[in-house]
Amino acid sequence: MTRFDLPVEELHRFGPDVAEPDDFDRFWAQTIAEARDAGGRVTVTDVDVPLRAVEARELTFPGFAGDPVRAWYLRPAGVATDLPAVVEFLGYGGGRGMPQQRLTWAAAGFAHIVMDTRGQAAADTADPHGSDPSVPGFLTRGIGEPATYYYRRVFTDGVRCVDAVRGLEGIDRSAVAVAGGSQGGGIALAVAGLRHDLVAAIVDYPFLCHFRRAVGMTGREPYQEVARYLAIHRDRTDAVFRTLSYFDGVNFAARATAPALFSVGLQDPVCPPSTVFAAYNAYAASVKEMVTFEFNEHEGGGAGHWPRQAGFLEEQLASAARADRKRDIPVLAAPGQ
């Protein structure tokens, strides 16, 4: 595919005016508080898989409305110390798969939590909440109102997953990172904007960013779901984009504080580079990096990018450890005091 978006030098300066509702923070504070108040049990059970170097467990935690959400909890075998954790969110239509498909982070010495995405085709977690009529897919489910929108539940699940992980035995609660690509990158970005206790965020070619531009720019799925919906419901354009403004990754990015590593393929027709850069340029943390892949589409950097992700996370863990040591140094009184 030929490049169709802005030149890279313009991408780095791209700072669009993205709609942000006045009650954005109140909406999300209330949503998360209600989910926490709903209660529910966190359970961890062993999984019978023939892995020797990695321990596999199933984590079930209460997500939106206390609904049970499933995840894998993987860690290097025989390691009793508290480990830094990577909470991974998944791409559109996918699910957590099988433990043997998710070994990389645990093999590198991290605890790895892989959250299911409720209701999606390959998931093991149901979405028990109905919605108004929508076109096939997930992007228009409940889109009539922010309170009923599908991604309100998914983003809340992401926040509650980190809540659960921080309470697990064997986790260093000061060293929890979030990660994901495409839809998973959008979820990671939302979680990074909704909490300020993360050591890092790894955000690859995120979906769910700058909806107004994406829906009008690309004819590819899943953004095309919104275009098809509005082609039928011609009088709902303003209401639809008002709902989407509560879920736009650009608005979450503006509230994020965790150091972040972004990436994007400059020929990506699914999540156009300018929508990714809109979130990156708005990202509020003082430490952030963008990696671009000039000739790649939605696959981004693929497996070849993982060593850079692991290196970035190690850098942030080391930086956090140095900051902790500095805080622990006693302040000595000046001579004569």
Could you characterize what this model shows?
The protein is of the alpha/beta class. It has a single domain (8-328), classed as Rossmann fold, CATH 3.40.50. The chain is built from eleven helices and nine strands. A nine-stranded mixed β-sheet has the order 1-2-3-5-4-6-7-8-9, sandwiched between helices. A hairpin with a 7-residue loop joins β1 and β2. α2 packs across α4, α4 (150-166) crosses α5 and α6 crosses α7 (223-232). The mean pLDDT is 94.
What is the fold's blueprint, element by element?
Layout: H1 8-11, H2 24-37, E1 43-46, E2 54-62, E3 68-76, E4 83-89, H3 104-107, E5 111-115, H4 150-166, E6 171-181, H5 183-194, E7 200-204, H6 211-217, H7 223-232, H8 237-245, H9 249-253, E8 260-265, H10 273-282, E9 288-293, H11 306-328
Parallel strand pairs: 4-5, 4-6, 6-7, 7-8, 8-9
Antiparallel strand pairs: 1-2, 2-3, 3-5
CATH names the topology as Rossmann fold
SSE topology string: HHEEEEHEHEHEHHHHEHEH
Task: Write out the strand line-up for the largest beta sheet, numbering strands in chain order.
Answer: 1-2-3-5-4-6-7-8-9
Strand tally: 9
Brief summary of the model shown:
With 337 residues, the protein is of the alpha/beta class. It has a single domain, classed as 3-Layer(aba) Sandwich (Rossmann fold). The protein contains eleven helices and nine strands.
List keywords for this structure.
Rossmann fold; alpha/beta; 11 helices; nine-stranded mixed β-sheet; 337 residues; 34% helix; single chain
